[in-house]
Sequence to fold (271 residues):
Amino acid sequence: MSSYAITGASRGLGREFVRQFCQNPFNIVFALVRSPDSATKLKELSQENTNIHIIKADVTNPQSMIDAAAQISAISGDKLDVLIHNAVAYNQASAHLTPSQIPLDEEATHQMFGDALSTSLYGMIWATNAFLPLIENGTSKKIIHLSTALVDQDVTKKVGMAQQVDYVVGKAALNVLVAKYAVELESKGIKMLAIAPGWVDTYDGPLPKPTELEAMNAEILRRFQKADPNFGAGQLTMEDSVRMQLEVIAGLDMEQSGTFVSHHGDQSWSQ
Ligand SMILES: NC(=O)c1ccc[n+]([C@@H]2O[C@H](COP(=O)([O-])OP(=O)(O)OC[C@H]3O[C@@H](n4cnc5c(N)ncnc54)[C@H](OP(=O)(O)O)[C@@H]3O)[C@@H](O)[C@H]2O)c1
Fold:
């Protein structure tokens, strides 16, 4: 029996991790969500699969993470095999700003970076530290943090993406912390990884997709294909992305701990 906890499991890739883990009835799956009441599709999934436990957990609130770890400890017998910190938030209103357009205004700048740093920097630390005692008692001893290929400076330059500053800065901080934690935790046998899931279609709204979203995706695809002719034809499905990530996570060993890889398990950022 293996146990898994996933932050930000209400929708998108987080919920897909839960869906794939729960297929094995011997797994015990902890789906961490900040608003269980509104996680309708996750609740439906948990009604069909009794090995899913929905736990309230806001990664931007340390006490919430402590409480979540305590609840999981009581169910799992004080241990956890794999933690996946997948939750993210960022400031959509300022996503179009390039660095030089960030206002010389302290409050506005803090507000712009608030969500990204709270989830990808502080939330990364709080999720990790709250669950470390359980991971230490687990068998696999793995902690995985979702990142993005846009953290790679070469990718940013080739794709020509000067926007989404808060989101990418938050993930860059997360990547550095993954290396630092890996150094610290090696003697305890705990392995940590930053993984980019590829460019994934997580759209969950009514079809057809909004025209603006289709246009934005077409532009993103054009830029990535221009940067890398082998990039791929479009977005990955959540099912494929998570399946490939799970193969990488299964193979994570001490040598790879502390690194940043794609869903291919290396530094290849194509689809
Ligand atoms: N999709 C892609 O193409 C792509 C590409 C590169 C990297 N990634 C990374 O992969 C991960 C998942 O991406 P996604 O596209 O599935 O994201 P998403 O659809 O935007 O989902 C984000 C999840 O995070 C949760 N969340 C936000 N703030 C939270 C908080 N304070 N506490 C707990 N949960 C919180 C959301 O919950 P609510 O429902 O409550 O809002 C939601 O479940 C992210 O880390 C993202 O950066 C994704």
Summary: The longest strand covers residues 28-33. The beta strands are 3-7, 28-33, 52-56, 82-85, 142-146, 191-196, 260-262. The pocket of NAP is lined by residues 7-8, 10-14, 34-35, 58-60, 86-89, 119, 146, 148, 196-197, 199-200, 202 (CB under 6 Å).
